[in-house]
Each structure stands twice: as structure tokens, then as C-alpha cells.
Amino acid sequence: MPLPSVSWSSRSGRALIVQGALLALLILAGAALWRNTQGALAARQIRSGFSFLSEPAGFDIGEGPVPYTPRDSYLVAFAAGLANTLRVSALGIVLATVLGTLIGVGRLSRNVLVRAGCTAYVEVLRNVPLVILLFGTYLVLTEFLPEATEPISLPGSAFLSKGGLHAPRPLWAAGWGAALLGLPLGGAAAWLLARWARARRARTGRGPAVGWAGLGLVLAGPVVGWLLGGAPRGLELPEPGPFGVAGGLSLTPEFLALLTGLTLSAAASIAEIVRSGLLAVSHGQAEAAGALGLRPRQTTRLVLLPQALRVIIPPLTSQFLNLTKNSSLAVAIGYPDLVSIANTAMNQNGQALECILVIMAVYLSVNLVTALLMNLYERRVALVER
Amino acid sequence: MPTPAGAAGHSELGGPRLPPERPGGAWAWARRNLFASAWSTLATVGAVSAAALVLPATVRWTLLDAVWRPDYQACRALDYRGACWGMVAEKHRLILFGRFPNAEHWRPLVATLLVVLALLVSGHPRAWRRWLLGLWATVAAAFFVLMRGGVLGLSPVGSEQWGGFPLTVLLTLAGVGASIPLGVGLALARRSGLPLLRAGARLYIELVRGVPLITVLFVATFVFPLVLPQGMPLDALGRIVLAITLFQAAYMAEVVRGGLQALPRGQLEAAESLGLGWWQTQRKVILPQALVLVIPSFVNSLLSTFMDTSLVTVVSMYDLTGALRLALGDAQWRNFFIEGYLFVGTIYLVCCFGLSRYSHWLEARLGRWARQEPSRA
Amino acid sequence: MSEPIITFRGVNKWFGKFHVLRDIDLVVGKGERIVVCGPSGSGKSTLIRCVNRLEEHQEGTIVVDGVELTEDLRSVETVRREVGMVFQQFNLFPHLTVLENVTLALLHVLELPHAEAEARARQQLERVHIGDQARKYPGQLSGGQQQRVAIARALAMQPRVMLFDEPTSALDPEMVKEVLDAMLELAQGGMTMVVVTHEMGFARSVADRVVFMDQGRILEQAPPAEFFATPRQDRTRDFLAKVLPR
Q1: How far from the centroid of its chain's Cα atoms is residue A129's Cα?
Q2: Whose CA, among A8, A24, A300, C130, lies 20 to 30 Å from A196?
Q3: b/e string for A155-193 if b means 16 or more Cβ within 10 A?
Q4: Which H/E stretch holds residue A331?
Q5: In this complex, is the C-beta atom of C228 within 8 Å of any C-beta atom belonging to chain A?
Q6: Partner-chain contact B321 A124, CB within 8 Å
Q7: Contact between chains at A291 and C104 (C-beta distance less than 8 A)
Q8: Global ipTM
Q9: Distance from CA of B242 to the nearest CA of A (A)
Q10: ∠ at Cα B36 (B30, B42), nearest 5°?
Q11: Lowest-pLDDT range, A289-293, A360-364, B90-94?
Q12: What is the mean pLDDT of chain C?
């Protein structure tokens, strides 16, 4: 193999020289920054490295699914923060998708009032910063609600106060295990039913519509499991007491404010995505389907929706990632997500560089996984062109 | 057997008629738009009754029962039955200008007005000429002279005292303005023929777009002081502007790349066949067209950066949002935070709504321009 | 003349205030081949789109195979099963394969068993000489091939009438012939056809009758020989002078 000539007059040679110079420049700049950092760290007597992760964190975390005490290590603290990030993001994604889809479809409604209302929602929510929304919601929750010692009583033994929302929580019993087991069984039964109906339709042309029956089976599975497991009905009820409401399922005002803010603002963006996806399918498609004798509902299900979804899903995914990234605004109202925890940690031990690297690594991995899944999906549904 | 030829007996009829009258204008309209189906009727009834419930109370609260004077006792006496716009009346200077010395508030006011004026002038495509750069250089210089002072007999005001709306405007325009050349560079690098350059640009863009803005602000506040050379004259504001620029550049690069991809390949081939080099091709042929195409997207970036700057309050800058929180630090007026947030929220809403309308208008206009171009040439 | 299958009587239609169809009277007999021509904007497309109620008329009656088109959705459904349509822009479903495009309505409208639907679809694809492309997606085919798939898709429903709305206008010149050939074969098979087209050669060789429209009215209708040789109206002569090769 002939070596590429390293001369400025040949195209490949020029490319080689430019890239070599670029690499050298990058290395030099990196080295300079590294020396600066070492000097600054030494001057401020901050140590470096990730060994701190295994040391006790020492600070408290208000809430979260991960059991954590201040004696646990920084690593556990970060994990607790990540769990909180995922908890609020996942719930926000579900709620925002439902709300956003309704509003997006509403913007195309033939009813003027519905259309105007949905348009107004989108225009306002897209043009007000999320931070304003978060602070506003949080202040409403913490300023206007009564003290935790005198909560508002909601139907179903739930309580709302400055301490957040407290609701009954089912006590764990073997029957709940059976109910959980019932869910996949019900799902499997629904799948078998759908398969049977499809086969029958293929054979005879007519098959029973099994959509509702299938949904019924999926729901019946857990119910039957619960009944067979002895129908446990033990609930842990929240109790108002002299020190506030105790027991039951508790959602803090920080969590509620963050969830509300994220959901409301993401719903506006999702509504726009859904609307433009629906509009993207050309009118000719609906006409062709109609001319073939398909009914409006069949046209929507078989022709319009499959095409609209291809347009909707990629931007929807990036909206989901946005919501997850925006959940880092938790730090503004003190919900202990990953970024808040890292912020606390770096204020405590001064290792800002390492803490920020942890945040970045986590967010980048979340992005990477999502991007991989999206690529798989897009390869599967891409419209084949010449 | 077909009908006899020329049997179209109506051909001698007169001109077109108007459509037959449809029954009752308003009623027909209502039937189509409000009561087209059972669901539609239900929605109409629901919407009207909700409005009947909410609207009168809202009007009473915001207008009829509101207190407009900065009179704390009167606001307290309201017991939240009406809005206390007195809070805004009392604190509007703090909210709008942050901690800038009170006696000097005319300076940020004039500085901001100059910028807004320059923005309005730049809005029309007819102003997109070389002199616009000169205008902006002058306006930027005037802005900094007015804000910083220390010359022309103006008392010096440190950047840590800047705040409120001028700071929001400054962060937005400086961040977006500086990110444009960076973003163009990154976009070109990402499409360059040099693998190392391409990979580097791609890595940077993906990395930055993958993390929340707040981490970048943390980097500016906590990491820049460690990493950057000790002697570098960069205060907290400068570091934040740098961070917003670096963050926005990654997004800008994708915007510009969209414009580059929208250009037909023929442009590149035509330029190369004329013997233009790579730089000349990009500078004279590709970029001018691509950049015009993405101007509406630039406006959208401006809009989202404008809203994103509200995040700097987390790292203790007193932009519009931060200044509001400063104002709410006053325990006396704190109870009327809703009025404060409505005031600030409305400022954001009006600015952003205006920008997004403008972006739509521009898109339609440029679309027409792009379509007309072949016939003009 | 043979038993009528499409009857327009005193049909008027407006788009807003624009009078797009004016006092249309037209009878199409069973097995007849009609070519509708006229300058653009004369209402030709609107006319045939009224036949399967893609457009609604506001005055007059349209009867298709004994069913009058009214607001009643069932009458529309019945008529649409009897009437196949081919569009200028093909309107194939891009997310389905060629075969699935053809079987979709067989499965969901006629509710045929899967195997039968597929057999019928393949037969129709063979008929327009495109059977070997069944597994491809519309995006992978040329314009002419796509239009032939669209014809097969409509034919598979075994319609009694076929409507063609400028079927060759969106095609590259070298593909026009393959589509016209498919339509010619169809005509030779005795199908009732109403074709909106500017292909005067096709009109001359295939049509039983040429209908000329201008400004929403039917100005003239005659067998092609007569229509091309001795047009009666000035407007028709103008039009023919523009579209016929001299």
C-alpha cells in the first residue's frame, strides 16, 4: 500500500496535515486546561478522583423509592437521585402524552370552542418558561394549602396540605402477589383470543371484534388473582396528627409541583407534534380509502393512523428526552432528583468536576439507550423508498 | 346508442348563479361549529358552563376587586378576594431592573429600549444589509457603556448588580449572537471531508444536546473557575454568557445543518464546476442561501433561549425571574406572589408570542421568496 | 342505448360562491366508455368525484346503479362498493406493500378470507402485468407501475364502474403508454368507464362518447369521430386546436 504523500499540494496530503494540526491543537489545549485545573485544585485544597463515591454522604434526602440514610455512600445517594428523576419523568411522560394527544386532536376539532380552547392552551404554555410555571405551582402548593396539622380532607381518606398529598396505600399481602401474577396471565389470554380471532378472520373473512373482550381479559387477570389470593383489603390509611399527616402513600409538594409543571408544558409540545403528524397524512389517502369503500373508522385505523404515527413518534421521543432533561429543574424547588443531589454533594465536598461528570454520564446513557431503541424502531417502520 | 351529438341543451343558459340560500346564517353556523354531533354539543355545553363559572370570578379578581395602589394595608384587607396589583406597583422597578442602583434606572431602560429598537429594525428582510452589522455593533457598545458606566460621567456599576429584563435580554442576545458563528463552524465541520473534524464536531454536538442546560450552568459556575487560566478576566456574568453560547452552539449547528441539507446538491456541483475552492464555495454560494433558509429557525432559537435564560436564577443571577424572586424575598409582599408571577409570566408570554408570530410571518415570506427565485433570475 | 348506470339530472354544485357544476345532465349506459375533457378548472374532476360522493352536490339528483346519492351514509357505502376510482396522484398507501394495498379493502370491506383475498389480488396484479412486484412497497415502484397497482386495487373490488381522474397527468411521458394500455385492455373487457383525460388519442380510439366541459357546463357530447371532425361550439374548436397535434 503506498503511503499517502504528506504534501500541501495533494488533496489527501492537505487533509492529513490539517487533521494533524487539529489534533495537536486539541492535545495542547487539553493539557493546558488540565494543568490549570490541577493548580486550582491544589490551591483550594480540593482533592480529585472518584474515591468519594464510596464514602458516607452525610446529607438527608427527603423522599424516594430507594431506601437511603445519611450514613449511606455518595453512590447510593446518586442512585436515589436517579430513581427520583426516573420516577417523576416516567409519570410525567405518561400524563403529558395523554393530555397532549387530547389537546392535539382537540386543535383539529370541528367544534370552535374546543379548537379555540386547545389553541389557547398551546400558545400560552409554549410561551411561558417552565421555571416560572414550577415556581408558581410550588408556591401555590406551599403557601395556600393549610398547615400539615390541619389538612384538607379529600374523599377516599386522602389529605392535602403543605405537607403534600397523602393517600391510602394497600398493605402488602400475598393476595397482591397473585394479582400481579394475574396481569401477565390476563395479557396472555387476551393475546390468544386476538390470535384466534385473526386466524378465524383469515379463514372465513369474518372474525368477531375482540378489542373490548381482550381489554376485559387483561383487566380481569389481576382481579381474579386478587380474589383467589384471598382478596386482601388491608389499607394503610394516612392519619392526621399533631405533627402532620403520617402514614399511607405520600407525595411531597415538590414532587407534585415538578410533575404538574413538566406535564403541563410537555403536553403543549406534544399537542403540536400530534397535530402536525395528523395533518401530515395527505388528504388523498383518506379519499382513496373512502373510494375503496372503507368506513371512516376503518380509514383512520388502517390508513391514517399508521402513517401519522411514523411522523409522530421520532419527535415524540425527543420530547420525552426533553422532559427527562427538564426534570433537572427540580433543583430550583428542592425535589431531590439526580441534579439536586449532585448539587448538594458538590457544595459539601467541593468536587464539582466529578459530580458534574456523574450527571453528564447518566444523562448521556439515558440518551444513548433511547437513541438505540429509536433507531431500531425507525428501521422497522421506515417507509421504503426507491 | 349514445345520445345525439350536441344535445347539451343548457349551453345557451346565462352565467353562473350564486348558491341557493342556506337556512339562517348564524343558526347554520352554530349547527356546523357548535352542535355538529352529540359529542360536539356536549363539549359546547361543557365549555360554556365552565366559562360561566370561571370567567366572572376571574374578571372580579383581576379587575373589579383588585387593588392597584402599592398600599399594603388595602391588599391585606382584600384577603385574596381580589388581585393585589399594588405588589407589582411597589416592586416593578426591582423586578424589571434587579439590583441596579435605583437612581440610575434610566440607564438600563434606555439600553434595553435601544436593543429592542434595533431588533425591530432588523425584523424586516429589507434591512438585511451590511449596515445592520454596524448598527448592532453601535447598539452593543452603547448598551455596555450605559450598563457598566465609568465613562462619560456615568457612575460605574458592576455586572453583579445587573439584573431584571435587561439581563434577560443581554443573556439571550449575547448567547444566541455568539453561538451563530460557532454553530456555523460546527455545522460545516460536521459535513466536512476530514474524518477527525467530522467526528469531533459530532461528538461535541451530541454531548451538549444530551445534557440539561442546568448542568452547563453548573459547569460555568463551578468548573470554569478551576479550568480556565487564573488571569482570565471573566466574571460570573461572562462565564454564564460563555456557557449559554457553548450550549446554544450545538443546537445552532443542527439548525444550520438543516439549512445546508435543504440546499439542492446542484448548487455545490455548479460552484465546483466553476472552479471555486472549498472556502469560496461555502462562503459565496452555500452559506448565504442556507442561512437565509434557516432564519425562521434562528428566531425560534432566540425564543427558546429567551425562555431558557430563566434558569440562571438557579445559579444566583437575577434575571427577570431571579429579580422577581428577589422582590418576593420581602416578607411583607411575599403573599402576593401570584400577582408577581402573572406579571412576569405575561412579559415572557407577550415577547415569545410576538417572536413566534414573527417567525411564522417570516417563514411564509421567505418561502414565497425561495419559490419565486427561479423566475426572478 | 343500453340500460343507464349513472344518471346526472339537473346537478349543480358550488365551492363557496364559485359555481363549479352548472345544470349537469348526463347519462352513462352500462358498458359505455366516456371520456370527459375540457380546459383545466372546467369542473371535469369535480363531476366524476360526485359519482362516488368524494364531493357532495347541492342541487339535482345523481343515481348510480339504481341508488340515489343522498346524505344517507349507507347509500354512499353501497355506491362506493360498486364504483372503483383511480386518482391522478395514485394515492397508494405507502405503509403497505403492493399486495396489501390491493387486499386491504377485500379483507375489511368485502370481508373475504385471507387466502381468497390474496388470490384475487394476485390475479388483478397479473392482469395489469405487475404480479412480480407484489412484495414491494409503493415507494419502490415507478410512477407507471404505481398507477397500474392503483388500477388493480380498484379492479379487485369487482366494481361495475371505473372512474379515472386524469390517470396519466402525473406520469413521465415514457410511462403514459403502459397505463393507457392497461386501461385499453380493461375497455376491451367491457367495463363501464368514465375517464377524465387530456389524452385525445385514447379518446379517439377507446371512447364511445366524448363529453366536453367548460366553466362547469357540459357544452357538447358526441362520438369521437364526430366530436373531433365537426365540433359545434367555438370553445370546443379552441380547445381542440390547443390540445391536438397539428
Answers
A1: 19
A2: A300
A3: eeebbbbbbbbbbeeeeebebbebbebbeebbeebbeeb
A4: helix A330-333
A5: no
A6: no
A7: no
A8: 0.89
A9: 16
A10: 95
A11: B90-94
A12: 90
